[in-house]
Amino acid sequence: MRDIRGAVARWATQFWADLKSSTDAGFLSVLRFVGLLYGPIDARLPITEAFRKALGYRLAPHVSWRHALGGIAYLLFILLVITGVLLSIHYRPSVQEAYPSIQHIVSDVRLGWLMRDLHVWAANLVVLAVLAHMARVFFDAAYKPPRETSWLVGVVLLFLVLAFGATGTLLPWDQGAYWTVSEALSGIAGIPILGGLAAGLLRGDPIVSGATLSRFFAIHVIVLPWFAFALLVFHFTMVRRHGIAPPTHPPAQPAEASGRPFFPNHLLRSFSVAAVVCALMVTLAAFWPRPIGDPANPSVLPDSLIATWIVVDVSRALIHYLGAWGFVGFTLLGLSLALVPLFDRGPERDLRRRPAVATLGAVFFLAFFLLWIVGSRLRAP
Amino acid sequence: MRSRVLAVLALAATAAFLPLRAALAQQGQGGGPSVEGLADTTYGCVACHADKRTAFVLGVHSERGIKCHDCHGGDPSAFALPAAHRGGFIGAPSKVATVTLCGSCHSNPDRMRQFGLPTGQLAEFRTSRHGRLLLLNHDLNAPTCTDCHDAHTILRPDDARSTVYPTNIPHTCARCHEDKRLMAKYNLPTDQVERFRRSAHGVALFQEQNFAAPTCVGCHGSHSALPPTVTEIANVCERCHQLVGYAFNRGPHARAAQTGKLAGCLACHSNHDTERVPVDRITAACARCHAAGTRAMTLGAQIQQSALQATEDMRAADSAIQRLTRAGVQTGDARFRYQTALTAYLQIAQAQHSLNLESLEELTRRVRSISRDLRGSAEVAEERRWEHKLLLIPVWFLALASVVLAWLTLRRLERSSGGS
Q1: Do B328 and A103 touch (CB under 8 A)?
Q2: Quick one: how far is CA B264 from the chain centroid?
């Protein structure tokens, strides 16, 4: 009897130890995944002490509020994932059901309106947050060696954000969604050589139809998230590996280890920012819900389109005032900024000593913001 | 070496010109009269009348194998005068003879049956104003068959180039009816086409390409063309506007129209203009015949009031649907109810022709009740939207509380680390 009890106790101890180490390993991998943990942890210490030691590193003293922009973009991304998963429970990607399912989400599902409007607002603000984060990196010359990989991965992440928004635009399947995507695909088809093929593959039909909706849904919820998660891990690992870029004007005497500890001080500050951003998002969602237009109708052109995504507003303003070539030019300007680190590799980091790059960046980021304001005014018929 | 280069160049030039030649040959075969048709050396008429042949081969008679001598007589195997104009040659038939000539085939059911064509044209033409002028009065200003259908290029009515294609009919009629000098002889106006173009029918025909809309022949008849008489007008309009006609025939105006005291539908809507009477102008239409203060005028004012009220209710229902849509509510049921209201609203437009106030008010009530329901639903949905904002109170409380807590903790941490 005692043997049996002893065997059960041994088994239970073993089971508990296995469970603990597996949980620790899982927890560690999550922490590594979001970039909180980097490098090996001290195996000689108890796990809690090891974490404290690993997370207690000190940040550079010049890290300030403007470094929060990347974190805000990440927070909005997480918000998009959570609301997106909740929406996908009720959303149905078919021509017959897409529009009624959105109405169902907004009017019948408990807090469904909040999920949807948070998703729409986060999809807009994530573009602004990513661009603001990029502008900070750009003007701080933080893209210079050895951090050019982080910059390039960041640029690909921006394109992923744009691809997320572009595919998500169609999903409400109302007139605004339908005709915005129709127009955009016609634009893509107008690109020489490969444009027609690309538009055809995306559309899957002579006109935007159920085939297009299925493609966009699959890309939006299955294809893009994998790329986004993989690249985010890469981006965070790079940031931890190379650290935050040094200040553009280094202080006369470097203060060793004078910065804030990451845990808990920096994390608490980040938490405050996150709380305020989340509350702001709920406020935006409650005050300015995304309207639902008429159901998509391929045979009726609407009098006016409800633009619900910032990039559509910017594109519309460009095409309205500068024509298609203005749009192409602005896109090329954006691309040239993305490739700046490949050419601008000198050690000079002072903004005043790199006037060409500074002007280019200022024009792009300011113009994007102004075009958004102007484009949203163009919404009225 | 040089000869080789020249040979290659010559080959390239030939290769470049071959498709061009093929294209030219194809053009000759495709559009217009075929080259072979014009070069027919066994048919004598073409020797002199090649232009007539060019026009003729475009038409449906040519497709059916009809030849020049089938209508004009003569000897097509001869290539010169006078031999060619022998053998029952009639030349260009007179206007009166043309009617008989066309009728010789087109009035014969045995010949027309195979093409599914009617054979009553000649009989109808004899009853028409055009036919009476031409055949009885020998008035050569009156049109004969070829004035509307062309003599040689006879196209099917569904061919857009045909003079009797729906959108071309008004212009075909206008060739004579817009001629002021000619029409003055018959005391007829010349502004019909201009007025028709602005009318509801003209807009439907020309701008919307809606061929259900009547052209001139829709009301006047084609071969039997005559203006409808006063007592006939309501019947002509009713052929399309059946529900309006049904209501009209049950009202007091129908009795007046039957006795010729009222020009039927024209009394309010005019003829070629087919004016709509706007809802707020109903009493103005009544006032054309009825004196102010009469019972009829009071009834007119009541009808106008009902129609105005229903129009306002429909507008409110439409905006309620939009408000519901904006609030994100499922609008399937609401849209179905709106359609029910719209049906009743359209019935009001028909029912007012009976001048029966009771049936009109029943319809108005139906519109009003649906409109009120929809507005109520919109208000409920908007109110719920407002309630969403209440969520901000706990959200901001939690957010601010956590910020305050975080800052307090940070201050404690920094103080302790500073102290240590």
Answers
A1: yes
A2: 23
